Structures are given as C-alpha cells and as structure tokens.
TrEMBL record:
Listed transmembrane segments: 6-22, 29-48, 68-85, 97-130, 173-195, 202-221, 241-274, 295-314, 320-339, 351-369, 381-404
Domain Cation/H+ exchanger transmembrane positions: 16-405
The keyword Coiled coil is assigned to this record: no
Predominant subcellular localization, coarse grouping: membrane
Topology relative to the membrane: Multi-pass membrane protein
Top-level taxon of the source organism: Bacteria
InterPro entries the UniProt entry points to: Cation/H_exchanger_TM, Na+/solute_symporter_sf
Keywords in alphabetical order: Antiport, Cell membrane, Ion transport, Membrane, Transmembrane, Transmembrane helix, Transport
Protein name: Sodium:proton antiporter
Species of origin: Kribbella speibonae
Coiled coil: none
Cellular compartments annotated: Cell membrane
Amino acid sequence: MTINGDGLYLVAGLALLLGAVLPRLLRRYAVSAPIAFLGAGLLLGFAVDHHRLTPIAEPGLTKHLAELTILVALMGVGLAIDRPIGWRRWTVTWRLLLVAMPACIAAIAGAGWLLGLAPATALLLGAVLAPTDPVLASDVQVQGPTTGEGAEAEEDDEVRFALTSEAGLNDGLAFPFVYAAVFAATKGALGGWAFEWFAWDLVGRTVIGVAVGVGVGWLLGKMTFDAPSRTFRLADAREPVLALAMTLGVYGLAQVLHGYGFIAVFVAALTLRAVERSHDFHAELHGFVEQLEHILTWGILLLLGVAITAGLLAPLTWAGAALGSLLVLVIRPVTAWVSLARTPMRRSERWVTAAFGVRGVGSVFYLAYAGADFRTDLPWLWATVGFTVVLSVVVHGVAATPLMRMLEDRRS
C-alpha cells in the first residue's frame, strides 16, 4: 500500500501525537525516543513511496532540513548553558574541541585510508563523522536555562555541560575539515591550497562567525532587555519568536559574510544570555526553540528510517561497518578520555563524557553538503554514515538513562 498526499497529513498528525507521548512513555525505560522514531520510520517506509525520500535522491531537501534542525538545536543549547564562557570555566570543552575532535578526524581518516579509501574520501568521512550532535543528545545535555535567583550558579553536572558545550561548537568547527576534503578531491595536492585553507577556511571564517554571533547577540540582547522604548523591549512583550528570528538572521548574516553560521548562532545565544543572565524570558525562548527542535528531529528520524527501508544501507561493506563501529565504540571514547586527562572530572564522569559522542544530524548535513564532489563513493558514504548514525542512536539511546542515573546516584 502507498500513502497518497492526503494520507501524509494523517501520518504527520500521528507522528506528532507519537512524539508527544513517547518521552513520557519511555522515561523509565532504557529506550530513547530517537530509537522509537527511527523504528517508526522503518515501518513507514513500507507504506510510502520511499524511493523518492532518500538522501541521494533528494540531496537538497536533506541538506536544508538537516541544516534547519541543527540551527534550531544550536540556539537551544546556547540558551540552555548557564556557565559564562571563559578559558578555565570551559576547560573540558576546549579539550574536547581542540584535542579529541582533530584526533577523531585523523583516526577515522587514517583507518579509512588503510582500508583502501582514497585520501580525500577518507578525510571527508572523518570530517563528516567528527561532530557530536546537539540534536539527538538531549538526554545527556543541560536541560534548560536556570533563571531568577539561581541563574548565577554554574552547572554542577560537568558531564552534561561538557557534552552540551562541545556539541554547540563542534558542528561549526567541522566545516574547515569538510572543505579540506573537498579541496583534496577537486584541487589535488596539498601544497596548492594548504595555506589558503588554513588562513581563510580554518581561521578567517571562524573569526567572522564568532564576531557576528557576539555582535548580533549583544545588540539583540540590549534591545530585548534594555531598550528605552517598551515597543522594542521584547522581554516585556514576551515574544519567544525572537529565538527563531535570531537563529535565522544570525545564520544568514554570517553566511552572507562568508563566516561559519553554525558557530555564529551558538555564540549569539551565549551572548544573549550574558546580556541579562537572570531574566526568566530565557526559559520561554528555550522552551519555544525546544518544541520546534523536537518536531524537526522527529521528521529527520522518520525520513532516515524511510531511507533505510528504501535501501540506504545496501552498499554498506564490512569496511564501512568496521569504521562506524570503531568510531562509536573505540575512537571517540579513547580520544575523548585522553583529552580530558588532568581535568576536575572524576574517573566515572570522564568515561561517560567520552562515551557519549552521539553522531546524528550534523553528519547527515555535511555529507549532503559535500556529496556532489564525491559521486563515485557517494552510495557507500551514505551507507556508512547511515549505519554509524543508527548505531549511535541505538547504543547511546539504550545507555543514556542507566548511565546518567548511575552518575546521579554517585553524586548523591
């Protein structure tokens, strides 16, 4: 049976109803909502024209839907973080970004090259699978902003803070390495583009993204909380749509200026919090973004399940499965564990932080973005990335509830 256009409204309504019920239903069990939605997508694939709903058939749709989902999630995690940004306060974040992430990219690329991949393809796979996900990792992240009298207190859960702040920044920081893979595939030898890549794609565009985020976040923060006219003081008007307006506007401005929009959005959210940290309007902004993020995430997972039913994983080889398994079970845990040495974290907190490098929507976006330059290997790349995302969703989804409870019991 194939569902027609009108029937899709029924499917959408049932999916939203399922999304409202599942988190409550699964709260006490070691099964996350993403696992359930992925399974629902697998079943839905038998009822719809699934051959048209695959990343390879619809790369533009895949890219833009994943892009919007990430943007909304980045705004959400930026608004959720209470801790003011600083070198010492964010030590665990910088370790994960500057040590663990490049090490992950190098390890995946090296393993892929040893298994027979072309150097550019191996580097792309490493870059695509490097970022942890701000979308599918909500069970192990900071749950929301603290406002009112307790707003100045830092998060006492170093694991949730580390995973939230890491996911907020490394989606944007993966971009330079994706560009490096594209340049290696299209421009050839490293010497011809290495300096330009380092000066512009790694440093220049990152600086522009940070500058746009700080500037726009500060201006909107002053307008929202301190504008002389009540007309422009959005905190008084209680307009949570500001969060979406800022997300799209900041991203668009950063992209127009050739900066990294993902970084700009996250930094803008942090800056907005810093302007007036204790105002309860932050909770309303976060709640609005969180609901939108949930809807987009459900859609992504359903479509991923449909694509798998359509044969997304058919080109998967033992080498691709080995690379995905190595990343989730060995490479990420080991590199993150090493990067967090000599931090204030306890041993159990280091292991949990290292283990929860959730892979998800960010990987889908980057492969859709760069896939046109790797047409020969594209089916295999999608199969490998799809397998890795599914493995991560299942492994981390099952482990999240018991491991986070274990940490809470140890603290208490």
